[in-house]
Amino acid sequence: MLAMVRESMFQIAGPWLDGGRVLDLFSGSGSLGLEALSRGAASVRFFEISREARETLEQNIALLGGGERCTVVAGDAVEPGLWGPGPFDLVLLDPPFPMIRATDGRTKVLAALEALAAGPLEEEGLIVLHVPRGALTPANIPADLAHTVREHGDQAVWYLQRR
């Protein structure tokens, strides 16, 4: 994710960070969740399926002294049963672009959005979804989620909340 895209995203998500509980799906090295911590989140639950990425994520958490406020889960980010107890004030959803471009991957991500809206998302919580520009249309978004989209070059960031 480009630095300007990340900065714009966190400016919009700022109100959900102060003392908020964050769920970071498709965490990778943890850059989004760790930035959420640095901007005031109380805790972050990271999900990463890749062992190598998890090792890097755990090293980054240790380097930044975030251990007590972070949980790292080895598992599939689109499996709602693994997310653990909510509610989460902010959900960061940054699937790999090849996944969201593939029909089956996109279907899994959209099913995860539905599950988030129905379950662990705080009533006034926010989901931030980062995808390739044009990968989704408003018709793809579950009807019970209000949305705003910001496009940045070849990327799009969707901001979703319960209606």
Automatic annotation (TrEMBL):
InterPro entries: RNA_MeTrfase_RsmD, SAM-dependent_MTases_sf
The organism's taxonomic lineage, starting at the top: Bacteria, Pseudomonadati, Planctomycetota, Planctomycetia, Planctomycetia incertae sedis
Source organism per UniProt: Engelhardtia mirabilis
Name of the molecule in the record: Ribosomal RNA small subunit methyltransferase D
Coiled-coil portions: none
Transmembrane segments: none
PANTHER family with a match to the protein in the record: METHYLTRANSFERASE
A Pfam family this chain is assigned to: Cons_hypoth95
Known EC number: 2.1.1.171
Keywords, comma-separated and alphabetical: Methyltransferase, Transferase
Gene3D superfamilies reported for this sequence: Vaccinia Virus protein VP39
GO MF terms held by the record: 16S rRNA (guanine(966)-N(2))-methyltransferase activity
